[in-house]
């Protein structure tokens, strides 16, 4: 009987789901199906076109205009929500990079992958555009909702699992379970799925399932954001760049991609209006007037979080590899992200036009750390840094060193 590796259910998304991360990454990088994700922060006018134009046209009502206070609350909340998955995802990526378990290893993006991403992303985006033009939008969104329902539950469970281990008291019973699917009989029996999980994992799954049903039935913006934050955090944690050069290629390519599809065509906006999925963070600009029932949203695509986020996480792992008990490059790039996102919002409101956020985020997130490295004389070291050599092989190297020391003592 052929056995498959036994895996923890919420240690990370299962392999079948894990393989969908590159596809989801394309969607959330602006590469995929969203105009939001497309990377621009949509201005008030564009947001209302996306969400409320049909109703406004039918009713003959004036378009909603956000108050300065409502806009400040909405965009401030979006900035805070964008920073959370980057910060915590980067921290968790350090642990993920050191994992020796093949089932827990991150997805590594090479320079070849990075160079192909804008091309694949463009094909994905244009393909979705044609799908929405040819087929019924209702049925496409139904299929996508079911897909993101399953993926969102797994992503949210994985996100909540570490916190759940700290919240639930250790003295409470924690039973172990196993989920096993096999194919065939006798000597030809083969294990397809073999997962081990415990009571804490089940609590995470139950809570995530409730959020999933809530999103599926109501499409409420809070449920959307819970899934969106989980996707972003998992993306930053599990998608790793192998070196800084690869990061520059990826961000540079998507920089051009973003500007072209936002300013050069209407494809991104069309897909954004048609696509319904938790691949964006939203916050209502009329929450002060309507509370949780508010429905005029400002948006930020997950691509504007995940793409710079995986580069910032790489710089944190570079900081760790320097063994200087300092996080200079991580904090520099993190502050650069805040600066770039703030600049996007400022330009957007000044010119009253949707802005591709990567237009401002990419130069900031690459330029600031490179400038710091140049001043500190570590630019060459930064671009020579290879993650696998520095982190993944660090523990085996330490073990080998200890063995040599013990052999010398015996001699």
Please, could you describe this protein's structure?
- The chain has 411 residues and is mostly helical.
- The protein has one domain.
- Helix content is 67%, strand content 9%.
- The chain contains 17 helices and nine strands.
- Strand 4 (176-183) and strand 5 (190-198) form a beta hairpin.
- The chain is globular.
- It is found in: Endoplasmic reticulum membrane; Membrane.
- Its main location: endoplasmic reticulum.
Features:
mainly alpha; two-stranded antiparallel sheet; 9 strands; 67% helix; disordered C terminus
Order of helices and strands: EHHEHHEHHEEHHEHHEHEHHEHHHH
What structural class do the secondary elements suggest?
mainly alpha
**Secondary structure: number of strands:** 9
- Strand residue percentage: 5-15%
Distance between the termini: 46 Å
Average pLDDT value?
Answer: 79
Shape: globular
Please work out how many helical segments DSSP would assign. Answer: 17
Membrane topology: Multi-pass membrane protein
GO molecular function, one term: aspartic endopeptidase activity, intramembrane cleaving
Family: Belongs to the peptidase A22B family.
Protein name: Histocompatibility (minor) 13
Summed up, what is this model?
The protein has 411 residues and is mainly alpha-helical.
């Amino acid at each position: 009987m052929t056995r498959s590796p036994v895996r923890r259910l919420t240690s990370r998304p299962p392999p079948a789901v894990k393989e969908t991360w590159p596809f989801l990454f394309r969607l959330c990088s602006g590469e995929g199906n969203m105009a939001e994700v497309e990377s621009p922060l949509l201005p008030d006018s564009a947001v209302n076109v996306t969400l409320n134009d049909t109703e406004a046209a039918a009713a003959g009502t004036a378009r909603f205009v956000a108050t300065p206070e409502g806009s400040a609350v909405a965009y401030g909340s979006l900035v805070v929500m964008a920073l959370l998955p980057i910060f915590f995802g980067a921290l968790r990526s350090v642990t993920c990079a050191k994992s020796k378990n093949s089932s827990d290893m991150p997805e590594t993006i090479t320079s070849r992958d990075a160079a192909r991403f804008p091309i694949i992303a463009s094909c994905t985006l244009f393909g979705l555009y044609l799908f929405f033009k040819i087929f019924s939008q209702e049925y496409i969104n139904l299929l996508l909702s079911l897909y993101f329902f399953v993926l969102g539950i797994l992503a949210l469970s994985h996100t909540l699992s570490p916190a759940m281990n700290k919240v639930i008291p250790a003295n409470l019973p924690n039973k172990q379970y196993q989920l096993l699917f096999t194919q065939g009989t006798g000597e030809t029996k083969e294990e397809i799925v073999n997962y081990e999980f415990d009571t804490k994992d089940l609590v995470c799954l139950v809570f995530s399932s409730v959020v999933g049903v809530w999103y599926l039935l109501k499409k409420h913006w809070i449920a959307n954001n819970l899934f969106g934050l989980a996707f972003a955090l998992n993306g930053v944690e599990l998608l790793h760049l192998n070196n800084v050069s690869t990061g520059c290629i990826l961000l540079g390519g998507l920089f051009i991609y973003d500007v072209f599809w936002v300013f050069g065509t209407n494809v991104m906006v069309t897909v954004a209006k048609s696509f319904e999925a938790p691949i964006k963070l939203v916050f209502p600009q009329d929450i002060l007037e309507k509370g949780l029932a508010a429905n005029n949203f400002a948006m930020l695509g997950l691509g504007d979080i995940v793409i710079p986020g995986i580069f910032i996480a790489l710089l944190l792992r570079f900081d760790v590899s320097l063994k200087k008990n300092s996080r200079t490059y991580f904090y520099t790039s993190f502050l650069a992200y805040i600066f770039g996102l703030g600049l996007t919002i400022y330009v957007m409101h000044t010119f009253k036009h949707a802005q591709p956020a990567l237009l401002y985020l990419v130069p900031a997130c690459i330029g600031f750390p490179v400038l710091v490295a140049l001043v500190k004389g570590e630019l060459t070291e930064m671009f020579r840094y290879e993650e696998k050599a520095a982190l993944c092989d660090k523990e085996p190297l330490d073990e080998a060193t200890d063995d040599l020391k013990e052999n010398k003592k015996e001699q």
